[in-house]
Amino acid sequence: MVKVALEMEPGDLVRVFGPATLRVSSGLVSVLGAELGEGEFFVIGELRSYVVKGVTASRIDVELEGDARVELASPEEEPYDEWVEVADSILSSCPTPCTVTVLGSTDSGKTSFTALLANRGILRGLKVAIVDADVGQADIGPPGFIGLAYPKSWVSWLRFLEPEMLRFIGSIEPSPLVGRIISACVELQAKALSDGVELIVVDSDGWVEGWAALEYKVDFVRALRSNHVVVMGDDRLAEYIARLFPGGVYKLTRPMVQATRSAEDRRRLRQENYRRFLEGDLVEVDLAKTPVYGACISGYKAEEKLVKIIEETLGEEMVELVTRYPGGACIYVEDQNPALQQAIKELQKKIQGLELMIIPLSTAKMILSALRDGRGHDCPALLVDVDLRSRKALFKTKCKGPFKSALISRIRLTEDYREAARGRIWI
Ligand SMILES: Nc1ncnc2c1ncn2[C@@H]1O[C@H](COP(=O)(O)OP(=O)(O)OP(=O)(O)O)[C@@H](O)[C@H]1O
Ligand SMILES: [Mg+2]
């Protein structure tokens, strides 16, 4: 670890790349909208960079770990003042309670501005909530969940916040489940309002291009009855959104110099967050007595005639179980193989008009899930294994039952919490 002491004059800007810890030894500095006085700390996480601005003549000690570094930033390349001004102007004009939705493409600074606006609210003494609606780069909860938190002190990274409530979504891509994301956000917003929150800042995902993305984002803003929308660094998006929400939209410049995250960095950040929430004790849940969402095993018994055709076509020894849902059937097979693929095509011809879902038993484990408890909270859980006959399932979770329902995602993980596969129904 390297320690540096910085002397700052009012208006000086330095950019700190984490992992780093700042401590103010004298004076007052501003970082991410927070105003830190003597003795106060601020942690800048790995793969994150922030600007620190001297408010008065001040001295800060910075501890740098790993690849962390500090550099001078010039006002021309740094939108910090603009961000703070817009945050303050929103807070001065917004009614109470106020909901602000932050939109923008990947790496445009959405999460940073969310934290900054929350910090400006905290500075004014407001009761603040953050809704993290980015299922892919979720910070308050694990990936595939959206989260609500009430920060009590300066926000430096959403990942450091304790979740007040999580809502299971079940995908790290928003596109297949936009309705679920919107309704879950509205639920979290309602909870915050009923808890007397005065400012709700909603962070979103970076999917903003193409009709489906825009339709989703517009529905999102409308469903939340957002008082303001902040669009990060994208003139076209800002113009488009401003046409639909006249008077309520702010456009902000994105940071020109910033820490970047590769696809592998992002995967690792997700892996860490899965581990943080899922590493718990094993609990057995009887899925025969518990409603299970997002799983074929909730289906009803298949007609004997249909099972016979399936067994004849795929081979009796291959078919473990068949369940039905209106319009389709789920076929649990021992394993996938090329011969089976061919047989499935044949089967599809024989029973036209019926949707078929093929579930190999070998992959019906290690599925990201949630167990909803008596308070209606979605506890992150990992479905480690399930016996399809008895419906007894083993979950790893930090939460204690009794659980009212189980929610199964489209994401399968490895033993060390990497994503093994995603995008389909697993059990
Ligand atoms: N004022 C700033 N100066 C330099 N870097 C900054 C500044 N504000 C934010 N950053 C950095 O820019 C990067 C992207 O910011 P952020 O994570 O807020 O974007 P995002 O739009 O939420 O990204 P994602 O789409 O991944 O959610 C982060 O490393 C962040 O620390
Ligand atoms: Mg973000």
Throw out a few tags for this protein:
3 domains, 25% helix, seven-stranded mixed sheet, elongated, Jelly Rolls, 427 residues, Rossmann fold, binds magnesium ion, alpha+beta, binds adenosine-5'-triphosphate
| N-to-C CA distance | 47 Å
CATH topology of the largest domain: the name is Rossmann fold
Major β-sheet strand ordering:
13-12-11-14-10-15-16
CATH class of the largest domain: Alpha Beta
CATH superfamily of the largest domain: P-loop containing nucleotide triphosphate hydrolases
Number of domains: 3
Mean pLDDT: 95
Shape: elongated
Which structural class should the secondary elements be placed in?
A: alpha+beta
Task: Indicate the low-confidence ranges by residue numbers.
Answer: none
CATH architecture call of the largest domain: 3-Layer(aba) Sandwich
Task: Explain the overall architecture.
It is a single chain. This protein is an alpha+beta fold and 427 residues long. The chain folds into 3 domains: 2-76, Jelly Rolls (Sandwich); 80-266, P-loop containing nucleotide triphosphate hydrolases (Rossmann fold, 3-Layer(aba) Sandwich); 279-427, no CATH class. It has helices at residues 80-93, 110-123, 178-194, 211-223, 235-244, 263-278, 304-314, 338-350, and strands at residues 2-8, 13-17, 20-26, 29-31, 34-36, 41-44, 49-54, 58-64, 69-72, 98-104, 128-132, 145-149, 165-168, 199-203, 228-232, 249-252, 281-286, 292-293, 300-301, 319-325, 328-333, 355-360, 367-373, 378-387, 392-397, 403-413, 419-422. Strands 13-12-11-14-10-15-16 form a 7-stranded mixed β-sheet, with helices on both faces. α1 (80-93) crosses α2 (110-123). The structure holds adenosine-5'-triphosphate and magnesium ion. Adenosine-5'-triphosphate binds at residues 15, 47-51, 80, 104, 106-112, 134, 137, 206, 255, 257-259.
